Amino acid sequence: MSAELIFDARNATGESPVWNAQEQALYWADIPAGRLYRWNAADASIRSWQADEMLACIAMHPAGGWLAGMQSGLFHLRPQDDGSVLSERLAQVDHARPEMRFNDGRCDRQGRFWAGTMLLDMAAGARVGALYRYDGQLQQVLDDFIVPNGLAFSPDGRTMYLSDSHPTVQSVWAFDYDTDSGTPHNRRLFIDMKQHPGRPDGAAMDVDGCYWICGNDEGLIHRFTPDGRLDRSLAVPVKKPAMCAFGGANLDTLFVTSIRPGGDLSDQPLAGGVFALQAGVRGIEEPTFHP
């Protein structure tokens, strides 16, 4: 299952890949650059748009464009033909400290948008991150995180997964999820990633209810069964895969974004690129935001 480079993006932090089935295109963001990208599967063409702030996570908006978690809050982004973005603020976030931003996020199966926040200086190890739910109103639901990540929902929507990817934590939790109220409860440890190679980063869910998560620093994408057993690991030719997403005509291609760190990259010249793997299983289409 060799990884195919689909675009040598050289993203500083390539994140939040989302497959748009209607367009048969993959969208993703480069967080610090504040840039939104689109790869067209039909001809492999690339387009990109420049936003006004760091751009961390996206979900399809019912009015077109994207609901985006950025630095100061949530926005409705409408990409324009000239490469600019029309940006409408939907909700401002009251961060616990200055110099914070949104990080990983996505919609639950009912279309509520969930996203976590983190301190820009990850090395500080400050537990000031929180997880928010947005259904027209922004509400903090969980806190005490350093780098909330790996958000995913089971196929029936009744289990929510969430990780903290900081080196001192490296845990993935599962929650029972009330689909009527959008409330997680009964938090328990799902995976102790210190027992596996790589820190937990962005995640995806397949039709079998298995949880795919990027093993950051180790160049691996792991698949865990619903009972938390490691089922398989796929390799990418970069050390820091950031997030994965299912797409393609049959939703059986696993797309992976990555991080391009500073320093000597002679051993990973494709760092920051976007890759495609044939995962051998189908994924689940991402819900559109439903306020």
From TrEMBL:
Residues 14-259 form the SMP-30/Gluconolactonase/LRE-like region domain. Transmembrane segments: none annotated. The active site is at D201 (proton donor/acceptor). Keywords: Metal-binding, Zinc. A divalent metal cation binds at E15, N149, D201. It comes from the Bacteria. InterPro entries: 6-blade_b-propeller_TolB-like, SGL, SMP-30. Substrate binds at R101, N103, D121. One of its GO terms (biological process) is L-ascorbic acid biosynthetic process. Its cofactor is Zn(2+). Pfam families: SGL. The keyword Metal-binding applies. Binds 1 divalent metal cation per subunit. One of its GO terms (molecular function) is calcium ion binding. PANTHER family: REGUCALCIN. Belongs to the SMP-30/CGR1 family. This is Gluconolactonase. It comes from Ectopseudomonas mendocina.
